Amino acid sequence: MKDLLSIRDLTASEMDGLFGLAADLKAQHRKGIAHPLLLGKTLGMIFEKPSLRTRVTFEVGIAQLGGHAIYLAPADIQVGKRETVKDVAKNLERWVDGIVARTFTHETVEELARHAAIPVINGLSDLTHPCQILADLFTLQEKCGTLHGVKVAYIGDGNNVCHSWLYGAARTGIELHVACPKGYEPDGDVVAASRQEAEASGGHIALLNDARAAAERADVLYTDVWTSMGQESEAAKRRLDFQGFQVDAALVRLAKPNALVMHCLPAHRGEEITDEVLDGPHSIVYDEAENRLHVQKAILATLLGRQSAG
Ligand code: CP
Ligand code: NVA
After folding, report:
1. What's the Cα-to-Cα distance from 135 to each of 92, 138, 189, 290, rounded to whole Å?
2. I need a surface site. Which of 125, 144, 165, 183 has the fewest CB within 10 A?
3. What are phi and psi of 296, to 5 degrees?
4. How many angstroms separate the alpha carbon of residue 281 from the centre of ligand 2?
5. Atom of ligand 2 nearest to the CA of 161
6. For residues 63 and 35, is the Cβ–Cβ distance under 8 A?
């Protein structure tokens, strides 16, 4: 594995190894023990879209590992407009040790990975958001002790976050019930590939158009914004189409009594989730956000560390 473009790039045992390292790094960080695994390494961070969590956790993460990040804002390099994706990759590989890229099309992050000799990490594309769901799975493992057989209800848009949940559930044996309004279902190829793999891992994937049915007896309720970055012109229509898909107190009551509520954030409070639920006792959204740091440090140490060893 040179790159991390999708959860599918990791085998189940590589994922276990990553989570073990993330747990160690988290414990060391909490005890104040230095862990400069990437001393002097540099990370180039290409962002075509805004970010709070991804940018800050990668910048803080590489700094805690002894390295340094360079943030390249949308207007700075204009991938594919000012120069080709290939030329961006061929230049960056001469100066930095790894690339994080947040792009509109998934092809851009794939093309960067194809042309760069250094590791490329997908920091969100229109198709997937692997770092987020790896942090979510790590968080769930911390809270539940296991992932196998945990019932997760994903309520909302069949978007990038949903796609990575499908891949992640299939790889870990999670029972995933996805509920989307008609017309907003996840990509058919992603669903088919995930269903096939879930058979082998002992997981199960169900697609529904009913949020209440998905939430019934769930261990986890997960949601994301109805309008993703790049879809802003559809926001008004989506607000209408997603009626009945809000994670509110009534939906939480259908889940198990100790159910966990998750959200990748940013949240559009009052749309896909109410304040009461986001700020309530079931919510673990800030634990997820914290774990972005620890899991991504494990990703960086694995990919960039291995590169120098090789
Ligand atoms: N969840 C997440 O990726 O947040 P940002 O868009 O703020 O990076
Ligand atoms: N689906 C959202 C996730 C943000 C972290 C988006 O792409 O905007």
Report:
1. 27, 5, 24, 9
2. 183
3. -70, -30
4. 24
5. 1
6. no
Pairing of the two strands 220-223 and 204-208? unpaired
Query: What does pLDDT average to over the chain?
Result: 97
Read off the DSSP letter of residue 104: S
Could you tell which of 102, 224, 265 is best to mutate to test the pocket of ligand 1, judged by most ligand atoms within 8 Å of the CB?
Answer: 265
pLDDT in tens, 108-137: 999 999 999 999 999 999 999 999 999 999
DSSP state of 273: B
Q: Which domains does the chain have, with CATH numbers?
A: 7-129+292-309 (3.40.50.1370), 132-288 (3.40.50.1370)
Residues counted in the chain: 310
> Is 265 close to ligand 1, i.e. is its CB under 6 Å away?
yes
* Identity of residue 92: L
From 213, 211, 238, 219, select the one nearest 227 (Cα to Cα): 238
Ligand at shortest distance from the CA of 285: 1
Tell me the Cα Rg of the chain: 19
Residue that is written with structure tokens 């919510």 in the block: 283
How far apart, in whole angstroms, are the C-alpha atoms of residue 293 and residue 62?
9
Give the position, in ligand 2's atom list, of the atom nearest the Cα of 160: 1
The residue written with tokens 């992640």 in the block is: 168
Task: Name the strand (E) or helix (H) holding 252.
Answer: helix 249-254
